[in-house]
Specification:
The two termini are 70 Å apart. The protein is built from four helices and 21 strands. Helix content is 27%, strand content 38%.
Length: 366
């Protein structure tokens, strides 16, 4: 009996020791991770970039003033033309026939006028001798004036017919480059139907689209910088020439044109890809480059310290600088932003924040 009691006591002691050992293995909670935070700094302006394409200031669709079959095309896309140069010809046969008919009518009208003038002269002599009545003389005078009017009308018809014949030739209205072609030889074109598009030599622009959130930040005449895709880092001077007052119904963006200064216009070619760097003034903010993280789904974000924890906040960032990143939207000047070690954090993680002087930062309430 005593031996049984001794075994029970040994088991009890073993259980107590085992439980004590298990309690000693329980992990202590991890301490809050220390992070370095700073508030956004004021920036004089925020620069944003917009992709675009180099276009001519004036792009004129060229068309015949009369319709007909296109029998000859003298130029192709990319050809440089000068004012008055022949571009295309439509069949002039019908117009030449109309011109000949009008000339024949003019000849007949001139012959009728000549006869009416001779009759008027004879009747005037008879009237002077009082051999014909005054009414007869008035009738001859009216016939002569009618014949004179017929001649003027016939001459006008000849001029119109000759113009129609001239309209069968399409000529360049100004110096420029053929940007596109919309018709081929053998095609029947209507009056006013575009055959070519002429890009004039009077300036180069970059066509861009401004988002709804940014269109109010820019104005016509504002100076910007243009960077060509094939010349990275080289900035050309430009300015907003026009900004559409209405948004595109599909894209919900506002079309804008940026005119390149004449001194630099000769250095760009039509169709080149370009980027317009435009800054708008205002109460802009900036954060260190090390604070910016890649957001889910694209874009940028930062970690903001609040309530003793960090929270990911999406931002609308401007052009990245060497050390600072301008923030268009998403932050306020009172926010505390994690500026180092952000890649080691997770949403809602508890942290201990210190500033650049290693002073503890009190967690603001969100």
């Amino acid at each position: 009996m005593s031996s049984m009691r001794g075994i029970c006591c040994a088991v009890a002691v073993s259980l107590v020791l085992a439980l004590s050992a298990c309690g000693g293995d329980r992990a202590e909670p991890a301490p809050a991770r220390p992070v370095l935070v700073a508030q956004p700094q004021s920036a004089p302006g925020v620069a944003r970039s917009f992709p675009g394409e180099v276009r001519a200031r004036e792009e004129s669709p060229l068309a015949f003033r009369v319709g007909g079959e296109l029998v000859r095309r003298e130029v192709d896309v990319g050809d440089r033309v000068v004012r008055g140069q022949l571009l295309a010809v439509i069949d002039p046969g019908d117009f030449q026939a109309q011109a000949r008919a009008a000339e024949a009518q003019l000849s007949a009208a001139e012959a009728q006028l000549k006869r009416a003038a001779a009759d008027r002269a004879r009747y005037a002599a008879l009237a002077a001798d009082q051999l014909v009545s005054r009414s007869t003389m008035d009738a001859q005078e009216a016939a002569w004036r009618a014949a004179e009017g017929e001649v003027r009308a016939a001459r006008a018809q000849v001029e119109v017919a000759r113009n129609q014949t001239g309209y069968a030739e399409l000529r360049a209205p100004a110096d420029g480059v053929v940007a596109s072609r919309q018709a081929e030889a053998g095609q029947v074109v209507a009056a006013g139907q575009a055959v070519f598009t002429l890009a004039g030599d009077d300036g180069r622009e970059v066509a861009i689209a401004l988002p709804e959130s940014a269109v109010g930040d820019y104005a016509v005449g504002q100076v910007v910088e243009v960077e060509l895709w094939n010349a990275p880092g080289e900035r050309l001077r430009g300015r907003f020439r026009e900004i559409s007052p209405a948004a595109d119904p599909a894209a919900r963006t506002y079309a804008a044109r940026v005119a390149i200064d004449e001194a630099d216009a000769a250095r760009v070619a039509l169709g080149q890809s370009a980027k317009v760097h435009a800054a708008h003034e205002g109460s802009a903010l900036s954060v260190p480059l090390s604070a910016v993280q890649a957001a889910d789904g694209g874009g940028a974000s930062v970690w903001v310290f609040a309530d003793g924890r960090v929270h990911a906040v999406a931002i609308d960032a401007g052009d990245f600088g060497a050390e600072q990143v301008p923030v268009v939207a998403g932050l306020s000047p009172d926010d505390w932003v994690v500026v180092a070690g952000g890649h080691l954090l997770r949403e809602g993680q508890e942290v201990t924040a210190v500033d650049r002087q290693n002073r503890a930062v009190v967690a603001p309430a969100r």
